[in-house]
Amino acid sequence: MSVFSRSRAAKALGGIALASASALVLAGCAGSPTAPSSPSSSGPAVEREDLTLKLGTVLPQTGSLAFLGPPEEAGVLLAVNEINEAAKGITVELSAGDSGDTDNKAYETTVPRLQNEGVSAMIGAAASGVTKLFLDSNVSEGIITFSPANTSPDFTTWEDDNLYWRTAPSDLLQGEVLANKIAEDGKSTIGIIYINDAYGTGLRNVVKEVFESTGGTVVAESSFNTGDTSFDAQVATVAAENPDAIVAITFDEFATIAPLLVNAGQDAENFYLVDGNLKQWGDDVSVSLEGAQGTTPGPVLEDDFVERLNAAWTEAGNSELEDQSYAAESYDAAVLLALGALAANDVSGTAIAGKLQEVSGGSGDGTACTTFADCADIILDGGVANYDGYSGPITFDENGDPTEATIGIFQYGADNTHTRIN
């Protein structure tokens, strides 16, 4: 197991000597929170009244990332349930909403509604391109935007008045792990098909730079735009070079692109996917994906967490989750927001934002804790809490980025569903 420093990579990606993918991947050992230390009581007593924290979600119920909506919403729901059950002087009121995508623009209805409801923070969006379209509006309203799944490197330097945070790592990490994995697999040439948006171009740039630094060559690349339905030109461009591997940085478009690639003579075992399309495809893709691989952020989740997640989701009238992508990141987002409010003794967005780095352990001090209830006790006793969550230690830097994260590697079987291999 190794720890990846997000801020270090942002400054030095182009020049560092890259380690192997296996060394970069923080495999499942980060998914099991450690036992909390005893709370500190060194801080001054704080006069308190019960707080009511209003949170909203802007997560994909529709659109190209709709497969990520259920686990993300389930993570938030479970966290809110457990925060309220803990009865630590704060009650969370949750209002759910659809982000959609940049094509159907469901966020254009959701975001103003949540703003009018007076939420302190919105958890979402999943797609970086969607978040970019409402982030400035939230900043002007003093509302925190806290994404469990945004990975675009652009957010690290966004002018956000300290109101943008995320529990997902930047694609500087996912792209590095994916490129090194491809090189480790003995591939010397790759072709890239990518969506022309903040997510696609950001991830494509990192994959290309890192793969070329290992001695490999990007022999073909072709982009498409959100809403496109025909990909013959992109497939023809890449297939003509017959690369050793093909990287598909897409969303649901992959269901159309994969058969076109196979029909063009490309072997699916040489396909490499990313978090935007690494779903349990099953019969939704008409060709076999056996042997294809892909990456997505997140540790191996504890069985107990998955059971609690499914229980909360199904008790709310939903079907059992097919996977848990970004569920832990969503859960941790809600917990951190509640802890930030407790630490600030205030539910305004700016006050909570002023405490988020502290409660994540990013200020360099604090007592380690792994549940909302234990962390809340530390805060209520006058101490500083350092929350280590199900998505990892988190430990925010000054930009609102987690400095420690996990990337998993998955492989597809004959039934077009994937399992984790690292």
Short description:
This protein has 422 residues and is α/β, with parallel strands linked by helices. 36% of the residues lie in helices and 18% in strands. The chain has 13 helices and 16 strands.
Distance between the termini: 11 Å
What name goes with the CATH superfamily of the largest domain? Response regulator
Count of β-strands: 16
**CATH architecture name of the largest domain:** 3-Layer(aba) Sandwich
* CATH domain fold name of the largest domain: Rossmann fold
Give helix % range: 25-40%
Order of helices and strands: HHEHEHEHEEHEHEHEHEEHHHEHEEEEE
Query: What would CATH call the class of the largest domain?
Result: Alpha Beta
**C-alpha Rg (nearest Å):** 21 Å
**Dominant shape:** elongated
In which order are the strands of the major sheet placed? 7-6-8-9-10-15-16
Q: How many helices does DSSP assign?
A: 13
Report the β-strand fraction as a percent range.
15-25%
Describe the protein.
Helix content is 36%, strand content 18%. It is α/β, with parallel strands linked by helices and 422 residues long. The chain has a 7-stranded mixed beta sheet with strand order 7-6-8-9-10-15-16, sandwiched between helices. A 5-stranded parallel beta sheet has the order 2-1-3-4-5, with helices on both faces. Strand 11 (367-369), helix 13 and strand 12 (385-387) form a beta-alpha-beta unit. The chain is elongated.
